[in-house]
Amino acid sequence: MKALGLFDSFAQWYKRLRHSKGFGIHSPFAFMLVNEIINCRCRYYGYDDIEPYIDSMKGRKQRRLARLLIRLVGRISFKKFIIIGKADDVLIKAVEIADSRVEIERDVEEVLSLSLIYVVGLCDADEELSASMQVDGNVFVFDGLCDSELRKQYENLVSECRHGVVFEDRDMSIVFVCNHLPFVKYSMII
User: Fold this and answer.
1) 93 vs 33, 39, 65, 126, CA distance in Å?
2) Which residues contact 66 (CB under 8 A, 6 or more apart)?
3) 181 Cβ contact partners less than 8 Å away, ≥ 6 residues apart
4) pTM, entire model
């Protein structure tokens, strides 16, 4: 019985690895997101600028997330960056480096189209967050999904999402809301 569980976990790991390289993803839009934004291996213009701000204690994860935000904001012209929960100043700096025109807010009062919403903690404004999951062009980055309460809130929000692409790792998820696409969920290494 234990060997079956080990095989199952290896199969899940292999599936995540394949999706993180773009294999098994049939949507051209999702394939582009994986190869040009999520797991892009080339250097971006803001990588050197963000390095002095990265805390050596949080190093690897903070660097990975800051670089992801630089690529997201650099590739998609967002109007707002909305933070829900307690975010590092490094992540705010990463968004500013990528595009200084992006408005940075710390609440979910009004979510327009083309908003990048970073969720790192539990949100009291469930209705507003749920409504923004239906707005075309919004992108959500859920971080810290190891927390069971945040995971539960995330699962409830994603279950209401009708259109778009979800890229999910163990502790992080990226949700692209696109009304022209059916709902697809990929498990991958982010």
Assistant:
1) 23, 21, 12, 27
2) 50, 53, 54, 90, 91, 93, 94
3) 27, 29, 30, 163, 164, 165
4) 0.81
- Does residue 105 have a pLDDT over 70? yes
**Nearby residues of 79 by Cβ (< 8 Å), 6 or more positions away:** 102, 103, 112, 113, 114, 115
What is the pLDDT averaged over residues 71-80? 88
Amino acid letter, residue 52: P
pLDDT value at position 9?
66
Segment 164-175, tens digit of pLDDT: 999 988 888 999
| Percentage, residues of the chain above pLDDT 90 | 9
How far apart, in Å, are the Cα atoms of 32 and each of 35, 37, 40, 144, 165? 5, 8, 10, 25, 12
- DSSP states along 110-171: ---SSEEEEE-S--S-HHHHHHHTTSTT-EEEEE-TTSHHHHHHHHHHHHH--BSEEEE-SS
Nearest partner of 144 among 176, 169, 172, 123, judged by Cα: 172
